[in-house]
Structures are given as C-alpha cells and as structure tokens.
C-alpha cells in the first residue's frame, strides 16, 4: 500500500533540507525526458518543485499524463536550475490518480481559457497559480476582518438564511415552498442583527445572502458574501471609522505579507490608504453640476454620475448624508435636517462596496416610516416588538466582500473572486 502522507510542501524545500529525505505530494506539471533521467515539475497548493528522476522511474514519469496526482520520495539536493534553488532526487515515484486527457482547460494558465470554461472546470482551474492566489488572498482577508472586529469587541453570530416573510423592505427575494408554507432566502441579516444589539451589544456576521435581481453585469451575483456589523451606542460616523479601519487593515496585510500572491493575481495597482475621503451627497451634487450633470436634491446617482465622481476621487471614498427618501425604512434622519439621513456608502470609483448608517430605534418612528414607504407595519410586528424591550440606539453596515476582493486583487469581473458564482445564467457546477 502506498503511503499517501507527505513530509513537506513545495515551498518548504530549501538549503536547510539538503541531504535529507522528503516526501512530496502534488500534480505533474511538466516532464522533460533526456534519456537516462527526466526532469519533472510537480505543483502543490504552495508552489512548484523540481524532481530528478532516474532508473525505472523515468518510464513511469514520462508515461504518466500531466496533471496526474503523484507522491514521491527522495533526497533534497542543490539545483542548477534558475527557478529552483533545490530539487529532489527521486527514489520512489508513485502515481495516485491519472488525469484523463484532453483536459477541459490548461490549469497552468499558459493557454488562456474563457471565464465560462474556467468556471465549468473550477476545481481544475484552482491549480492555476493566478486563480489559487486570489483565493489565498480571499482567505487572508477574512482573517483580518475577523481579527479587526473582535479587537473592537464584536461577537460573531449566524442568523437564519431561510426566513418566513419578505419583510426586509426589498422586492428581490427568492421564494420557495417550505413545508406547505412560503419561505424566502434572506437578502441580508438586517432585522436580526438589529435585534441582537439588545443583548450582545456589538455583532458581526460573514455569510452568504441571496438577491433575485435580474442583473447581467460584472459586479452582480444572485448569491454573494456579505460582512455585516451592528453596534449599540454608536452613531453612523463611528461605524464609518470601523469600516475604514477594517479596509485599511486588509490592504496593509496584503501589501506587507502577500505581495507575491497579489503579483500572481495580477493586481496592477499598489493600493496605499491611510485615510478615506468623506464627501456629502450635496457636495457630490455640486461637483456633478460643474461637470454637466443636472441633479436635484433627492435624485439618485446613476452609474454614469458615479463614474464621473470616481474619476475625480480616485480609489476609496465615503459618500454620506444621503436624502432620507432614498434610504430604507430603518435609516435614521439627521436631527437638524430630517430630509437628510445618517447614512453612507463606501465607494471605489463607481463601485459601491458598503452601505450603512444609524438605525431608527424608536418603534413609533419605525411604524410611521414603514407606512410612509408603503409597507404594512403589521407584517413587521415580530421585529417591532423587540423595540419595546429597551432597544438601544445602534448603527451598522454591510460590506460586499466579493466586490472588495475584486478591487483589491485587480479583477474586472466579480466571478473571478468567487469559487462557484451564481448569477442569472449559472446554477452549476
């Protein structure tokens, strides 16, 4: 029976191991047959290493299809190859599973494939160093987010993704039969996370959400990952400070500790952020007027308008103090101007990454706002009852993590940063 346990990953091989026996597992990437010996490159999740294969193992190596999984044993020695400071002189070469050719895509990335073909063979696509780098970065970013929020005394929670009513104030929910009743997939944890501030004070959640929006763009998905927070006794500018700190921490972690992965991912722009600019909605209206965009207070900002703003304000910027009528029923008004909301979006150019604000905590104001927006307060009674139990003032936001990763890794399509994206056309694999 073949021993399938390895002793080292490819990136652990170095001068300190010269003369030692190692066992490496991975996939054959290249084979160069020069007669009595063969040079074989195998790749694992950490990178590639070179093997020197001799004797009977030469025929095994050259007859095994590329991208087959193998495990090898041998001694580490100095290499003359420019790409590999050390190599493994193989004593045992075991083929675990042969790859069936032709493969649907070239996982080395030397032959480019269309995104749809790559997504159809996503598991194989992850052997491409560029694709793998994106998902290593995605994982690293989530750790930074969790560490940042925990340092601010947030507790991680998990709220239901199956809900019993379309009561979030939005129309784009997926409905389905749920044991002879109607069920829906949640498009945000908004109502739950507000209720949780009653007892847990500061909460955050990282999870999947669903939006039945018939959008065919490079930035929309029907299933997406959202980072959500809600915090008692904080105003909207306080939670803006938290999202600013979080984004800067992720950028710094990538730049300081994941430069090679950013390079592999193809991130062309080296982001450096110490402070994020804050603009009010009215400032933006005035700026756009100077650029020929005729907008009145209360008008929403179109993609075209946001693109113009993004040309003037490069990179990240907050767009705050939106007209109240443009925001959901639970957003708080400004005390000195009730037509303006305590709200904000975090933009990167035209792309919205975060939406947040101060929430209403007065149940009577909430009922009034629901009626103003044409929603039936009675359908929110389960939610509203919690506001009669001493609801504290609270603020929060939701961050589209897929979009943030799209920005930080320099991708042009959000599908590139999601393992198995779901959109209006794709429900498999």
Tell me the span between the first and last alpha carbons. 34 Å
Number of domains: 2
- Number of separate helices: 12
Number-wise, the strands total 18
The pLDDT mean sits at 95
Enumerate the spans where pLDDT stays under 50 for 5 or more consecutive residues.
Answer: none
- What kind of sheet is the major sheet? 8 strands, mixed
The name of the CATH superfamily of the largest domain reads Bira Bifunctional Protein, Domain 2
Radius of gyration: 27 Å
β-strand percent reads 25-35%
- CATH topology title of the largest domain: BirA Bifunctional Protein, domain 2
What series of H and E elements makes up the topology?
Answer: EEEHEEHHHEEEEHEEHHEHHEEEEEHHEH
Neighbour order of strands in the largest sheet:
6-10-11-18-17-16-13-12
Secondary-structure arrangement, i.e. CATH architecture of the largest domain: 2-Layer Sandwich
CATH class of the largest domain: Alpha Beta
| Structural shape | elongated
Please give the share of residues in helix: 25-40%
The secondary structure category is: alpha+beta
Keywords summarizing the entry:
about 425 residues; alpha+beta; BirA Bifunctional Protein, domain 2; five-stranded mixed barrel; 12 helices; elongated
